[in-house]
Amino acid sequence: MRIPILKLSHYLLVSVQVELDDQTALQFQEDLLNKIHNEGSLGVVIDLTSVDMIDSFIAKVLGDVVDMSGLMGAKVVLTGIQPAVAITLIDMGIKMQNVETALDLEQGLEKLQLELEE
Amino acid sequence: MRIPILKLSHYLLVSVQVELDDQTALQFQEDLLNKIHNEGSLGVVIDLTSVDMIDSFIAKVLGDVVDMSGLMGAKVVLTGIQPAVAITLIDMGIKMQNVETALDLEQGLEKLQLELEE
């Protein structure tokens, strides 16, 4: 199972609408980084609205994806983080520094555009 | 397996990146129509870039989805149709009248915005 990554102009959009098991999360990490490289993307919006909860492994992978994308030059905005997901991320000590958050995909995209125009 | 449907402002974005078997296609049809209804969407972009070929059943479902969405008041733009897909659609007598097409997701979204501004 692969999570689809949509290209829209200089950005990539991802909406996670499946349960994230370990294999899916790692595959997503690899796919996203490859796509950033191939498309020369400036930013990524990852929408987690449909994700009810995550375990510690997925939390780490998510944190890694944000850091890795940043290293490659793509700004990440996470959107729709639910309470249980926020709790797991903070409990795990994953501070998500340098990552913007927003309420939904649309606002995430706007935030990305504003940031990159600066 | 469900195909994720992303909501962006008044539009829905779909990028089909899995092989469309009969069950997946019918589930997609149902999900999309429900989402159009729930979100009050004005338009839908369905990106078929990753779809190499379709069989006659999937071609019919796709044609139906376009017609049904139109009935519900949402304009559909199909993008990234590959040669084999175009051949199957026409061979099946599915003319896709009233449906706009575009090269990729971005151009599809632009087309939709232009049309709806008119």
UniProtKB/TrEMBL annotation, chains A, B:
Transmembrane segments: none annotated. It comes from the Bacteria. Residues 1-112 form the STAS domain. This is Negative regulator of sigma-B. It comes from Halalkalibacter hemicellulosilyticusJCM 9152.
